Structure formats: C-alpha cells, structure tokens
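Why should sequence recovery work at all? Because a backbone constrains its sequence more than one might expect. Tight turns favour small or flexible residues, buried strands favour hydrophobic ones, and helices have their own preferences. The token representation captures these environments compactly. In the example below, the structure is given first.
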C-alpha cells in the first residue's frame, strides 16, 4: 500500500512527463490533490496524458518543452506559474540513455547530447524553478539522477558522468537554498520497468534477466515506486531531508 499525501492547493511541475517515471509521478501528484504541469519534448503524447488526467477531474497543464533549450524551460515554468499562481514542487525527470560504448571510441557529439539533456536540462529546470520558489520562500525540488550517479559500469562512462553531475548540482544548490526554505534532493533509480528500459532490452543493450539478477530484490522497479519516492521527498514527512541522493534501486548500490 502506498502512503497518502494531501497536496491540495499546491502546484507541481514535472519534466519528461509523457511516459514512464515522469508520467507516474505527475499522476501521483494529481491524485494527491496538486495541480500539475506536465512538460515533455513529445507534445502530442503529453497532451494526451493531460487530457486523460483532466477527464478524471484533475487540474493539469500540457507543455511542450525541450530541456536542452533554456528558453523553452523558462517559458514552461513561467506558464505553470501564470496558470496556477505558484510553484511548490518539481520533479526534474527528463533524461535520455545512450548505447554502451568503449570510452576510447565514443563520439564527442554523443557525450554532448547526453549532458545537454541529463545535466544541463536539469540545471536549466532547477534554475527557473528556483526563481519562483525563491520569491515565495518555499518549495521542494527533486532531480532525477540514477544508480549511474553513484557507481560506474563499463561502457557507460558518458551517461554516468552526466548522472554524477546531477548529484553534485543537487548537493550544492541544496546547501545554498536550505536557509531560504527550499529543499532540493535527488533520487537515483535503479533499473525501472519503463518504455526507455523496454527499448534498451529490445535493442539488445540490456539483458532483462541479468538486470533483475543485479538488483537484490530480484526484479525491476516500477514507475509508481519512483513516484512514491518523489512524493515523499516533496512532502512534510521529508522536511528535514536536504541534499540527499536517494537510491531507489532494489538494493543495487548496497551490494
């Protein structure tokens, strides 16, 4: 059974919100009573997600946003505040995976792409969320890192560098903004059963049986389990939690 939260009267902003962990988290915020802005590069899919949430009686806003473009991120956050009047919570989830590669052979453009989305995109999202939260004097931000932000795996150097960067970004900003009433944390998901992971399995970039065996719990995680971790970090129950990189990984990094 999942814990319940009451976010009535509050506003959440979620990137990478059209599917997987982002959509599950946006839905969880909405079901807890928050108005939710769903931002994603895939405009048609995020519009469909918002239409579904609205049909269930939730307040939701669809935003087409490529997080590699800071101006689009700024516009999406501003539109959220213009529509709902404030910004209380954010889950910066948008990210990409890249095929495994020998560190000596990976192209610079691949390195730049994964950092543009996974690190610079979170930097831009957090920056513009903080502009509004700073004026309010309150807020909670959760940035999506990865178990790849805590460990290294052969063939994943560029991806893991981007996710390690998210943890450094989170920790420094958390210390800066804790005295101003804003809490910033990161989550580090393990291998989660999402469309991105299904695509990796289909392409032969990930073996499902091996991935399940690598997580001591013996299975992949679910998007809903990530959503519940995000909601807890945004809730009053985590009001003394600042600057953590929380593994939600079935025990992977505890080995």
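From this structural description, the recovered sequence reads:
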């Amino acid at each position: 059974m999942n814990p319940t939260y009451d976010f009535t009267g509050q506003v959440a902003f979620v990137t990478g919100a059209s599917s997987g962990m982002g959509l599950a988290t946006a839905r969880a915020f909405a079901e807890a009573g928050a108005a939710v802005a769903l931002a994603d590069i895939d405009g048609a899919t995020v519009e469909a997600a918002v239409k579904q949430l609205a049909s269930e009686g939730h307040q939701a806003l669809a935003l087409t946003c490529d997080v590699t473009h800071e101006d689009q991120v700024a516009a999406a956050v501003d539109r959220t505040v213009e529509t709902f009047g404030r910004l209380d919570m954010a889950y910066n989830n948008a990210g990409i995976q890249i095929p495994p590669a020998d560190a000596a052979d990976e192209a610079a453009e691949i390195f730049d792409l994964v950092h543009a989305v996974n690190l610079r995109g979170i930097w831009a999202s957090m920056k513009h969320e903080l502009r509004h939260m700073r004026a309010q004097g309150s807020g909670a931000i959760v940035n999506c890192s990865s178990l790849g932000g805590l460990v290294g795996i052969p063939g994943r150097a560029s991806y893991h560098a981007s996710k390690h960067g998210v943890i450094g970004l989170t920790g420094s900003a958390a210390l800066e903004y804790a005295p101003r009433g804003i809490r910033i944390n990161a989550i580090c998901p393990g291998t989660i059963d999402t469309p991105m992971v299904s695509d990796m399995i289909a392409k032969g970039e990930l073996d499902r049986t091996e991935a399940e065996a690598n997580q001591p719990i013996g299975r992949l995680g679910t998007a809903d389990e990530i959503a519940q971790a995000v909601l807890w970090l945004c809730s009053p129950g985590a009001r003394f939690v600042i600057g953590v990189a929380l593994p939600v990984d079935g025990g992977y990094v505890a080995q």
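A few observations help interpret the result. Residues 121 and 206 are 25 Å apart (CA to CA).
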